[in-house]
TrEMBL record:
<feature type="domain" description="Amine oxidase">
    <location>
        <begin position="22"/>
        <end position="452"/>
    </location>
</feature>
<dbReference type="Pfam" id="PF01593">
    <property type="entry name" value="Amino_oxidase"/>
</dbReference>
<protein>
    <submittedName>
        <fullName>NAD(P)/FAD-dependent oxidoreductase</fullName>
    </submittedName>
</protein>
<keyword id="KW-0560">Oxidoreductase</keyword>
<dbReference type="InterPro" id="IPR002937">
    <property type="entry name" value="Amino_oxidase"/>
</dbReference>
<comment type="similarity">
    <text>Belongs to the flavin monoamine oxidase family.</text>
</comment>
<dbReference type="InterPro" id="IPR050703">
    <property type="entry name" value="Flavin_MAO"/>
</dbReference>
<dbReference type="InterPro" id="IPR001613">
    <property type="entry name" value="Flavin_amine_oxidase"/>
</dbReference>
<dbReference type="InterPro" id="IPR036188">
    <property type="entry name" value="FAD/NAD-bd_sf"/>
</dbReference>
Amino acid sequence: MSDITTPTDVTADVVVIGAGATGLTAATDLAARGLSVIVLEARDRVGGRLWTNSIDGQMYEIGGQWVSPDQTALLASLDELGLPTYERYRDGESVYVGRDGAAKRFTGDIFPANPTTEAEIERLIAVMDELTAQTDPDAPWTHPQARELDTVSFRDWLATQSDDEEARDNIALFIADAMLTKPAHAFSALQALLMAASAGSFSNLVDADFILDRRVVGGLQGVPLALAARLGDRVVLDQPVRRLEWSDEGVTAVTDDLRVAARQAVVAVPPNLYDRITYDPQLPRRRYQLQQHLSLGLVIKVHATYETPFWREAGLSGTAFSPYQLVHEAYDNSNHGETRGTLVGFVSDEKADALLALDPEERRARILASLASYYGPEAAEPVVYYESDWAAEEWTQGAYAASYDLGGLTRYGADQHTPVGPIRFGSSDIAGLGFQHVDGAIRMGHRLADEIAADLESAGADGSAVPAPVSVS
């Protein structure tokens, strides 16, 4: 008796691959228009890079978590879904550790350094803001200096702007370490401007009280969970799509258990996972080339919980920064309504490479020592400790999002939203506004749904004209 089973045939107007914020938003919009939708998710849960979980009895947001005032698409979804938010704790002084290793308290956005360096940081912020204002987040390749800015690394471009190394290090921190999670030599100045433009300005990225304003009660994964609940059995888990068979007439998504024949498909996963699917016929040459120039960054998100938020008693907000520490930034991440205190910190790019080569105990010790450099020796003794390592997740393989290598934006950016026959690709990784954030993922979901609905309407779609299932050869 053979162990091989024949996949079940299903039909729908649209098949969505990936039950993250983009895929579920698109599916929700399409269903609201009366179209039939099936969402196929490889994991045993919905949410993608949004995940709220209990570790040793402590609730942690393993993935994305913050909400900022400019994220209007996300805010609209939270309001529509009835998900309340609360402010991140920020009362008190922040901490900066400079090149000399000394911890210095400060308030405001400019890190405490010598007066010359502080003035240079402010000047560079103004330079970045001016260039950002000229950058369309939906089409950064149209910037007047796009080619020039896209063929020089952000690190080398900063060197042309200032001789002050500490000022350059601090400006780079907000893009390289804190956002793209790649070394500043690995992406272009234009990619840096896209990151800033997607948040409204570079000043917004510098302002932690703006960019990390609020959290969702119960966790940001509440968004995809609520969307999936509304979609019901149209969302099918544990169904990695192995193959997409497509033509101008339609597409069939093949998993180990299902064959979903549809008129159109949305591949709503990070770009580094596109090639986990076999395409028949194969994708156009340029699409494959485009995908090879996009890659995810690397970051370890560190969660450390203590019986009390001891730093508050010391007059600290919990906010800390340093381009010279393993943990380049950290914040008070205490959950709504809890008496315990939680710190969240981040270790990115080459620093993360070095730590991930260590055994877990040594890695933990070094990370906690870095936290202690900001908050004192009590930070080295958490009651619960956890590291979010998205690079080890089979269906993510990095964090926070994908970005182009040098020259990639001007070479391929204008084509990243171009459909291939009935197949569309989309996620926060290729969003404009809200790039690499949940806000961008939701915007992409709305955009994809609008485009598909318009296509099906123009084709006179009535929900019945779907391609016949193709037999497995």
